[in-house]
Amino acid sequence: MVYFKKMAVIGVGLIGGSLARVLREKKAVGEVVGIGRGEANLKRGVELGVLDSYTTDAKKGVEGADLVFIATPVCSIPQVVAEIAPHLSKGCIVTDGGSVKEYVVAACEPLMPEGTWFVGGHPIAGTEHSGVEASFSTLYQGRRCIVTPTGNTDPAALEKVVELWKVAGSNVPLMDPVQHDLVVAAISHLPHMVAYSLVNAVDGYDRFGGDLLSFSAGGFRDFTRIASSDPVMWRDIALTNKEAILEMMDFFSGYLEKLRGLVAAEDAEGLRTFFLNSKQKRDAIL
Ligand SMILES: NC(=O)c1ccc[n+]([C@@H]2O[C@H](COP(=O)([O-])OP(=O)(O)OC[C@H]3O[C@@H](n4cnc5c(N)ncnc54)[C@H](O)[C@@H]3O)[C@@H](O)[C@H]2O)c1
Ligand SMILES: O=C(O)C(=O)C[C@]1(C(=O)O)C=C[C@@H](O)C=C1
To answer: What parts of the sequence cross the membrane (predicted)?
Structure first.
């Protein structure tokens, strides 16, 4: 089994905290150091047994680490790598959990000093909650973590990153970063754009002059759970996967337009077929 002597986790929230928890549980890491900006969250990480120690000084924290996991919002990942790069030990593997891969991998690979390696990754698992308090060791169990090697990726480093996600309980497909971004634009980014828009639209609808949202029940709440996700995380995803998200939003608008046409035309059979097709497709993934 893969083993790292010292793991540094930069950004100890849901994603970083959950990976630290499971790797500790499985005894795949010797020591875990948390690195971040907020002392209260890091202190809580030690209290919860997620971390052995913490520091707000990233340069110090990565000293002697053979694994660095970066789990900060996407736009900050290249900045973090630039800051730690000169302080990495030879042989260190740096990987991340960011939700967008082309932006991250293209920016980070060239920053790596000789004898150290960057391998991009993205667990397709999460919740709408943030911070170390929200982390749990089974988050990655039975889920996918997409790892995105390029032509520059060191095969041994890639193998170790794949292995660590397997230890965390995930299936680990390999994907080109550009393809990854198109896939997640469809299955993750579009649904978040729609959920955030739906809440804002209903909130902004003032025909009755009352608080419409307070009448919401199961359907609305289930559908919009993900609109409670962290706004900074989603700002960064929208900024760095712009083209793929726009393509999916336009494609989706076509379906909404089609449905609008069926409703307007009172096309009973068209409506039933539209809903049936969707129900069958969704039921099949449950
Ligand atoms: N939440 C999800 O469902 C989910 C799923 C998969 C991937 N991701 C990705 O994982 C990453 C982390 O998401 P999360 O849900 O764990 O967020 P989180 O808010 O729970 O944790 C992020 C942590 O990073 C810290 N941080 C922010 N900027 C920093 C910086 N510049 N330097 C050091 N620390 C910094 C924050 O204070 C926080 O403690 C993001 O890139 C996100 O896109 C999230
Ligand atoms: O379950 C959730 O709350 C999530 O939104 C997790 C989710 C997703 O499935 O879209 C969100 C963003 C990620 O990058 C990966 C997973």
So the answer is: none
Region for residue 21 given its phi and psi (left: phi exceeds 0; alpha: psi -120 to 50; beta: otherwise)? alpha
Instruction: Please identify, by atom number, the ligand 1 atom nearest to the C-alpha of residue 233.
Output: 43
Cα→Cα distances 125→2, 107, 177, 273, Å: 22, 24, 18, 32
In this structure, which ligand is nearest to the CA of 121? 1
Find the 97 Cα to ligand 1 centroid distance in Å: 8
For position 209, what pLDDT does the model report?
A: 78
Q: What is the DSSP string of 58-95?
A: HHHHTTT-SEEEE-S-GGGHHHHHHHHGGGPPTT-EEE
pLDDT, tens digit, for every residue of 76-123? Answer: 999 999 999 999 999 999 999 999 999 999 999 999 999 999 999 999
Q: Where are the beta strands (DSSP E) in the chain?
A: 4-10, 29-35, 53-55, 67-70, 93-96, 117-124, 144-148
Residue ranges per structural domain of the chain: 4-175, 179-285
Short-list 69, 126, 122, 78, CA closest to 98: 122
Q: In what order do the strands lie in the sheet with 117-124?
A: 53-55, 29-35, 4-10, 67-70, 93-96, 117-124, 144-148
ipTM of the complex: 0.99
The band of 206, judged by pLDDT with boundaries at 50, 70 and 90, is confident
CATH class of the domain at 179-285: mainly alpha
Of ligand 1's listed atoms, the one at least distance from the Cα of 18 is: 16
CATH number of the domain located at residue range(s) 4-175 in this protein = 3.40.50.720
Does ligand 1 come within 6 angstroms of the Cβ of 61? no
